[in-house]
Amino acid sequence: MKGIKKYLITSIILLAVGFLGLTITGSITYYKYGLNSEYNCADSFGTSAGHMFGFGGMMNMMGTSWFSNEGTSLESYSFKEVKERTENYLGENNLEDLQIVEIMEFSENFYIEIIEKDTNIGAMELLLDKSTGNIFPEYGPNMMWNTKYGMHMGTNQTDADMSIDEEEAIHLGEEYLNESSTDLFIGEEADRYYGYYTIHTVTKDGDIAGMLSVNGGTGKVWYHNWHGAFIDMEEYETH
Q1: How many Å apart are CA 139 and CA 14, to the nearest integer?
Q2: Is the dihedral of CA 48, 53, 56, 62 positive or negative?
Q3: Mean pLDDT by groups of 10 residues along the chain of 239 residues
Q4: CA–CA separation, 136 and 218 (whole Å)
Q5: Residue 111: its H or E element
Q6: Taking the model in full, what pTM does it have?
Q7: 122-129 and 135-137 beta bridge pairing
Q8: If exposure means fewest CB atoms within 10 Å of the residue's CB, which of 7, 41, 140, 222 is most exposed?
Q9: How many alpha carbons fall within 13 Å on the CB side of residue 184?
Q10: What residues does each domain of the chain span?
Q11: What is the distance between the alpha carbons of residues 191 and 176, in angstroms, rounded to a whole number?
């Protein structure tokens, strides 16, 4: 519990700084549509590189101690290095009951999927910033919709069962992409977290392009537009 609280504090700090960045940049891409309601989509799809909250250099000013004690920039990162840094991050935050199952490299950052060892349910999503080497909780659904490890921790809504199942979440993501008039398609599987799902988006050739999340209670869709172009990924066995 101590580790989760430390993680939550970091999330709150990131969210506060994020909204400050929002007031500076004046832009945020948050796509949504609720069940039994008219679809609502922003005018542009927003798959551009860059951070949703416009962190930029603001994250550098906050220092590395809030994220990872190995926050040094390298010219390039190997998956092995990212995995080792993430395992250290989990240890520093007393989250040894969690494990890495997937790391995806994008042009802007590395995305790291973390699950609970005892349940295999998604716990949190982390990012490694390539420009700083910092590891930190991903903004967006990971903070706002995560009912166990996110902003709503302590609301007694930590049950992973949601009114929207995986099949419906995929359908909602597919409808969102169709309405957004993009050339992207929804993936075949949805990773289940506490309160939401995260799903890969793919090109017409079946190559991974990015990801989006679907709220498991409301059906709202949030596209992750802060990763940049997809490069490569590695998956790891659970134990």
Answers
A1: 7
A2: negative
A3: 56 50 37 36 31 31 40 75 96 95 97 97 97 94 94 58 95 96 92 97 96 97 97 92
A4: 26
A5: strand 109-116
A6: 0.75
A7: antiparallel
A8: 41
A9: 23
A10: 2-235
A11: 18
